[in-house]
Design brief:
4-stranded mixed beta sheet; 17 helices
């Protein structure tokens, strides 16, 4: 086997995603699979697999492909801690061993390019453990390596979504739907119809997932509905490539049996990893802003959003998208809807909270922008800046809550050095403000502030204010005898009009 002329790259590094806690959702890696493999692979014998088993199988294939796209390497390895981190916090080493044993006793069949492969052992594996190593070594069967190394059509499997599924039936339906989207040739477009409906019979669903028939070959449709279909909506919550909903259609016969199932897939905009931009760290200075860990969004996402989501009707700046995101977060936290559309949206209100919990703030923010772009609501308002200002004020309260004055204790707002140890305090003015707004909202409150002075425990320090003047970065500084109470008081006034963190410098 050798690398094909075209070998699609994985989206996001799996090794990086599993290198530290919390990175899997943040990086959201996706691995390419041949469409025919996704659409035809069925389990034909061996153990009853769990959803975690199915997720682990996909992880091992993805790791092998990321390390060697030609799939020439027969034996691969992955640290045990990476496997445990991938499968979830409740996973233990003995769970991984049991899962590997089930995969080793499983046989599959599939058809690619007119060639059928039958009774293929899914995996060979063993564990090597010493004082310095604890790793899973494994070999994929030659037919799967051959198919993975050469493809004409492919689709991406979202690795972060698979461990979130509760049933192996759900992961099998997911694979079939991913294949169906690829086979349809449909792609997300800014101004087009991005909904794909797939109609199937209960018998087809049973074939997809390998649902058992009765001895006479019949299908218990009620049990299929309960064990396969009922859990799909919840299990697909972490899928970001498409929105999922389902409608069941009853027949006209006695008891109105289930006759047809319609899967409605709303294609999502391309992953933020596929939206390419060129920028330097300096470019990020005035974009986005830090937040508490669960709500922190990469600054580059807002530049990508402004570039990706443009049409004749909607073209917002990175600042506007960030303002709307902050407004949506405040809406979620207060429970006070900003419009009647709130409860109808996936990425608003409690729906947004659920998405942040399941896929992380970065993917939730991207989904929010995509949803708002597809069906404009908040983006149509004339008070976006005001919404953003309120959201910034709430963000400031989250990251730097005002505490009761304590003259005996200094707190480092940036987590590095304390106020007492600092000689300078640096703040960055929101670059979207006009010169007049900068004066009224930032500089005037600073000049009018009544400073504590030496008598109230103050010390001489420099307040350095960085701002944009006609596109050029400028600095203004003021030397005053100040206490930490002065900083807290000033931030309550000018904080909503700043970006980034307050910085103490020794």
């Amino acid at each position: 086997m050798t690398a094909a002329v075209f070998s699609p790259a994985p989206q996001g590094s799996i090794q990086t995603a599993l290198a530290a806690p919390g990175q899997l959702r943040k990086i959201a890696p996706a691995s390419p699979r041949p469409v025919e493999l996704l659409g035809s692979l069925t389990v034909v014998g061996g153990s009853d697999l769990t959803a975690k088993d199915a997720a682990l199988s996909e992880l091992l294939i993805a790791m092998a492909y990321e390390s060697d796209r030609g799939m020439n390497t027969e034996t691969m390895s992955i640290p045990m801690k990476s496997v445990i981190r991938y499968l979830g916090a409740d996973t233990r080493r003995e769970h991984v061993k049991a899962s590997l044993n089930r995969l080793k006793s499983t046989f599959v069949s599939f058809t690619v390019g007119g060639t059928s492969y039958e009774d293929v052992a899914l995996l060979q594996s063993w564990i090597r453990r010493s004082d310095t190593e604890d790793a899973v070594f494994y070999s994929l069967p030659e037919p799967i390596r051959a198919v993975m190394s050469d493809r004409a059509r492919y689709a991406y499997v979202e690795l972060a979504a698979l461990p979130m599924m509760s049933s192996t039936y759900s992961s099998r339906v997911y694979r079939r739907l991913v294949a169906a989207i690829a086979e349809s040739g449909r792609k997300w477009t800014a101004d087009g119809d991005n909904v794909l409906t797939i109609d199937v019979t209960p018998q087809q669903v049973a074939d997809w997932v390998g649902y058992p028939r009765s001895r006479d070959g019949g299908l218990h449709v009620g049990k299929l509905r309960e064990r396969v279909l009922a859990g799909l909506q919840k299990d697909f919550a972490a899928v970001t490539a498409f929105g999922f909903s389902m409608t069941t259609h009853a027949g006209s016969g006695r008891g109105r049996p289930l006759e047809r199932v319609s899967f409605r897939l709303e294609l999502a905009a391309p992953s933020r990893f596929r939206t390419r931009i060129t920028y330097t760290p300096e470019d990020m200075r005035y974009i986005g802003g830090q937040d508490v860990a669960d709500l922190s969004v990469e600054s580059s996402l807002w530049i990508k959003a402004a570039r990706q989501f443009q049409s004749a009707e909607t073209s917002l700046s990175h600042r506007a998208w960030y303002d709307l995101w902050l407004a949506a977060v405040q809406e979620m936290q207060t429970g006070v809807p900003l419009s009647r559309e709130c409860d109808e949206r996936v990425f608003r209100g409690e729906g947004l909270r659920s998405k942040i919990d399941s896929i992380g703030a970065n993917e939730a923010a991207w989904g929010f922008v995509a949803e708002e772009f597809a069906e404009p609501d908040l983006s149509l308002r004339s008070d976006i800046r005001e919404l953003g200002a309120a959201g910034r004020a709430a963000r400031h309260d989250r990251i730097a809550p005002v505490a009761e004055p304590d003259t005996e204790k200094s707190v480092a707002m940036d987590g590095r050095i304390s106020f007492d140890a600092a000689s300078e305090i640096i703040v960055d003015v929101d670059p979207s403000l006009t010169i007049r707004e900068q004066t009224e909202l930032v500089f005037r409150p600073i000049k009018n502030h009544e400073w504590s002075g030496v008598g109230n425990g103050g010390a001489s320090k420099i307040l350095r204010v960085r701002y944009l003047d006609d596109g050029q970065l400028e600095e203004w500084e003021l030397t005053k005898t100040m206490s930490e109470d002065d900083v807290v008081s000033l931030m309550s006034s000018i904080g909503p009009h700043l970006v980034g963190n307050l910085e103490y410098v020794a």
